[in-house]
Amino acid sequence: MSGAAALAILVSGVAAGAINTVVGSGTLVTFPVLLSLGYAPVTANVSNTIGLVPGSLSGVFGYRRELAGQRRRAARLGVASVLGAIVGAVLLLVLPASAFRDIVPAFIAIALVLIVLQPRLNRALAGRRPPGGHEGLATRLGVFAAGVYGGYFGAAQGILLLGILGLALPDDLQRVNALKNVLAMFVNLVAGIVFALVAHVRWDAAALIAVGSVIGGQLGARYGRRLKPGALRVVVVVVGLSAIVRLL
Predict the structure, then answer these.
(1) How far, in Å, are 23, 27, 135, 166, 169 from residue 126 at the CA level?
(2) H/E element holding 15?
(3) Residue 133 pLDDT exceeds 60
(4) pTM of the complete model
(5) 129, 124, 128: which is closest to 114 by C-alpha?
(6) What pLDDT, in 10s, does the model give residues 73-98?
(7) For 84-96, b where at least 16 C-beta lie within 10 A, e where not — what string?
(8) Where are the domains of the chain?
(9) Residues 175, 114, 94, 139, CA torsion sign
């Protein structure tokens, strides 16, 4: 790996760690970078998932104040996330690589649509949250489905979780976002363990993303609320469109 390639992966890891903490679509930064450097799509996805695990932990630590009082809730919903992540990771490994190349552009397109619609979604959710909240079967099935998606391809799983949790819980968006970070961390961790055991991983790339994502996770937790969401969405959409073009 050349020095320029290593720097590009490291910087993309920083950006992904910050974006994952604040929004939840950092894979749309790191994945296209790995593709542009010549990594096969499945190898890029596997290495990226493993690399983002430390960044997920960093983001959770950064939002620890907002997690106060949510330990039991995180544990209950975390079971659904873990089970979904296992299913998604297994699907990635058992389905042919051609299926991944065919499916992922659609996933990225859906993720980009969700990113664009996020402000409208947040406004809609604000008036529909039940006073007491609930974590019933529908909520757990939604979290499980987001885990399957995240285990297979993690881009925008955080936005899916924000939508699901925002409908189910009465908390403000920052506390919901903190819980989202925990559940996404469970998904990345479980999928990363599966991939590390049985998949082909480019450990040099994963290590660079890991270092960058830890830094980015802390930056996202500290400064992310000061960024203009619109500008951040524009960057993610542009990068995501480049990934679709690359895959097609």
Answers:
(1) 17, 27, 17, 8, 10
(2) helix 3-22
(3) no
(4) 0.81
(5) 124
(6) 889 999 999 999 999 999 998 988 78
(7) bbbbbbbbbeeee
(8) 3-247
(9) positive
